[in-house]
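One example copied in:
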Amino acid sequence: MDKQTMNHLKRMANQVRQDVLSEVYSAASGHPGGSLSVADTLTYLYEVQMRVDPQNPSWEGRDRLVLSKGHTCPALYAVLAQKGFFDREELKKFRHLGAMLQGHPDMKGTPGVDMSTGSLGQGISAAVGMALAAKTQGADWRVFAVLGDGELQEGQVWEAAMFAAHHKLDNLIAAVDNNGLQIDGNVSDVCSVYPIDEKFRAFGWEVFTADGHDFESLDAAFSAARQVKGKPCVIVQKSVKGKGVSFMENQAGWHGKAPNQQQYEQAMEELRAAAAELEV
């Protein structure tokens, strides 16, 4: 990945994080922690890996993305707005009554959203179905699914994983946002899902690891996954919940809480300072 592309991705991801905070603050509701941890991944996928057309969101030949951890939709909305799927002004109306951007993704009401999600475990199942449909149709589009690590506690995830491997769905790439925290605390304390990599291998998946906040690491993992034939792939990416905002990082309490005005202003000041450094 060249320096110009890297800097572009960093600037875009920083803006995504600013938008996430603005969305949740304006709604006085939402899930900032996991949205911040997955911002780099969604930025990378839409800018580098995925074949999409913002002017034709329903284009049959597009790649699909299923945000299985649907509560982190503020990050997805921010990316879609930057890509031009809808007007950025919509971000200010996140979770507002009658507005387009709901608290969880709605495929019927939001351009660019490929699957309605929110009930954990169901998104990866839908993604598996999409990948099977592409295989059945002989289509060359790919399916990407983004899961949370706490979400792996859902048995439905492993049913989907078993099914995907059985049908050799090599057009499916999943990413596990392994920030180590869920609403009730540390994933390892609530109900450990570790070792994540060995579990997916046991279910017949090709496994890669990545730093969820390093674009070169993400690029290496996703690019390698695209070359795999005969089995689905998963990228287990280590990330930081609340990434980019000092007082939110690695704090389970920011899973589903909106900042007050003082906290919002501090968070935005930190992100803007980080953005300014990228321009140097």
About this structure: The chain has a mean pLDDT of 97. The radius of gyration is 18 Å.
